[in-house]
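Friendly challenge for the regulars: who can give me the structure tokens for this chain first? No prize, just bragging rights.
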Amino acid sequence: MGAVATPSRSSVAPLFLVDGFNVLWRGHFGFPAPIFSRDKQRNLTGLFAFFALLRVTLRDDLDTDAAEVCVVLDGEHGSADRKDADAGYKANRESTPEALAPLQFLTPMKEALDAYGIAWVEIDDAEADDVVATLVHRHPDRTIRIMSADQDYYQLLDGDRVRIINRSRKASKRIVTDLEVLERYGVTPAQWPDFRALTGDKSDNLPGVKGIGAKTAAGLLAGGLSLDELQESGRLVGTKGAAITQAWDDVLRWRALSRMRRDVPVAWQSTGQPSPALPRPADVIEKLGMW
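First reply, four minutes later:
Bragging rights claimed.
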């Protein structure tokens, strides 16, 4: 009996991974106009916007063949481990009822995804980016696109295989590649957590080293250097070098917080087949009986 052939990348549909909360929040707070129920009593903007953005991205921005879609959601306790390691992690995120308003759409969003045959994953003790990173790692021969405006995903970029689609950018700039990151920031995707540890990350409330900007950090990491090699490189000189040395333990902790896990136990299994097309967002709302 001959060996079983391994499916080639071209024989399976590309994998389209959606950072669900990122799209939902940006849709709810950044959609061009609010969307209300017919009686004007319920604001449905987040739900409508999520499906509108997903549909138009798959239709207009995907640079691959029809894809298998999986929406990935943050677990309720997904950031607990990182917060235990650093109490400041994401401590700048607002928790007012207004800021958390998109949460009301989670249940109907999942119901609609199920109704239209779109997969979704939510793991209670895992953040969405760790699940996405795990799925990217699990499918090393698969063409993958990630829908998010979160720059943390830059560490996953990999040539034409893994790219990011960011709809907050203008149409001609929505696809983010590893080459763009290298040209713009002077670091490779593998260096991104090291870079963020030095410069900080406002979105995750990581302060970085005082006085170390993007240009300085890129210079220190030039040539593919990692933080593990930096102390012996002879580059930590002057006041900036002293600042990094003094904050070294913090820098290593910030890098650990920035690094995505690739070992989350994700039960969902890809089919390798393209997902069904989504209807107009108004039809989704109608199907849910929420108009």
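Residues 45-60 form the longest helix (16 residues). Residues 1-8 have pLDDT under 50 and may be disordered. Your move, everyone else.
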